[in-house]
Design brief:
Radius of gyration: 21 Å
Shape: elongated
Distance between the termini: 49 Å
Strand content: 15-25%
Largest sheet: 6 strands, parallel
Helix content: 25-40%
Number of helices: 14
Order of helices and strands: HEHEHEHEHEHEHEHEHEHHEEEHEHEHEE
Oligomer: single chain
Low-confidence stretches: 176-189, 389-393
Strand order of the largest sheet: 2-1-3-4-6-5
């Protein structure tokens, strides 16, 4: 008879789970080590970035599963609703439910006990798994969520793992680790910025052709649509801070070249994703960080990048080895023409300002479908009129 962890892993395999991500929890440490040895697995710095990574993986046709502690769901709700649920992407969430069974840490009580009500209020389906014999409920939940492109949270009590004979090993969790030692310092200095974000998008547009482009929400996505609409563009309409996680998830799940157009406000909201990207080290990922020192979509209020934060140094500190800071046209074009493998980080200094362009006239589910078609085989050409096969790319 299989032990609890083995039974759950067998169910995951049966339902085609092929990418997992996690933050640690002492109650499921053995399970997480076994998951890390069995599936493509990515350790996270924050639960919210896991939502973005899994969304990118789902766009590329993967069946992702996320393992978190109950306290972490509080960090995920907005991303789950405005990204995963909004774009109708599948996500299995396995929650180590604290605060309900032989809990010794009182701070775990509020979130653990209120989880069912929170999830019900958010419209997220869930199952409570309170004993080993209830693990079989996971099978039906996974079948349903992957067939309906929905979210399902499995709230797993520590009682589920009692009596298991599975033992934790000594394996490392992770996709693969790059050497994270940063050697040397950034060479050279950039000229003062004079380009707007719209100017920058126009300059890099020729180098986006045929690539998956994940664009930060608000004005960046609208400006990208106006300058270089193609059906491989994933326009974010919500979930600030998720552009780079989504791009990372796609890059880890596809051989397509992926370009993320991110901003300083967005990156400062979720900077730990840079560490995750450096660790996973996908060679097909390029992050173009357009830094105008302002929250451009909310009135150009200043960000810390305009005063005390150097985003290129942040990326290097997190482990990126291929970075550059640019401000002028020639150096930006040279950076885009760089053929070295990623992950790469281009820190583009800009001045604040939004181009007066219309809203994106494409329904969010059509945006998702077009990107999925591009990633999984069939896609519209850049004009949106002719359908090609992957072999024609």
């Amino acid at each position: 008879m299989p032990r609890q962890e083995e039974e759950l892993i067998a169910i995951l395999k049966k339902n085609g789970v092929d990418l997992t991500a996690s933050l640690p929890c002492e109650k499921i440490k053995t399970l997480l080590e076994m998951v890390g040895r069995t599936f493509t697995h990515l350790p996270l710095t924050r639960e919210e970035e896991g939502v973005g990574i899994c969304a990118g993986a789902a766009l590329a046709g993967k069946r992702p599963a996320l393992f978190v502690q109950s306290s972490g769901l509080g960090n995920m709700i907005n991303a789950l609703l405005s990204l995963t649920q909004f774009y109708e992407l599948p996500l299995a969430i396995f929650v180590s439910r604290r605060g309900v069974y032989q809990e010794k840490i009182e701070a775990q009580f509020p979130m653990g006990r209120k989880l069912p009500g929170m999830l019900a209020g958010a419209g997220i389906a869930f199952s409570e798994i309170n004993a080993p014999e209830e693990i079989a409920l996971v099978d039906r939940g996974l079948e349903r969520l992957y067939s309906t492109n929905s979210i399902h949270a499995f709230l797993m009590s520590p009682a589920v793992w009692e009596g298991s004979e599975c033992k934790a090993g000594s394996s490392e969790l992770g996709v693969r680790s790059a050497e994270c030692e940063v050697k040397g310092r950034t060479q050279g200095t950039a000229m003062p910025p004079f380009l707007t974000r719209y100017d920058i998008i126009k300059l890099i547009a020729p180098y986006l052709e045929g690539k998956v482009v994940v664009s930060n929400l608000g004005w960046p996505s609208k400006e990208l649509y106006a300058v270089k609409h193609q059906t491989s563009n994933f326009y974010m309409l919500g979930s600030m801070g998720m552009a780079t996680p989504i791009g990372l998830g796609i890059a880890l799940s596809s051989k397509k070249n992926v370009v993320v157009i991110d901003g300083d406000g967005s990156l400062l909201m979720n900077p730990g994703t840079l560490a995750t990207a450096a660790f996973a080290s996908p060679p097909n990922l390029l992050i173009v960080a357009i830094d105008n020192g302002a929250y451009g979509s909310t009135g150009n209020q200043p960000t810390f990048a305009g005063s005390c934060v150097d985003l290129e140094q942040v990326a290097r500190g997190f482990g990126f080895r291929n970075t550059v800071k640019v401000a002028g046209k020639k150096e930006l074009i040279a950076a885009m023409q760089d053929r070295r493998k990623g992950p790469r980080f281009i820190h583009v200094l800009a001045v604040p300002g939004n181009k007066d362009v219309p809203n994106i006239p494409v329904h969010h589910l059509e945006i998702k479908k077009q990107v999925q078609d591009f990633l999984t085989g069939l896609y519209l050409d850049n004009s949106g009129t002719g359908r090609k096969s992957a072999s024609e790319n």
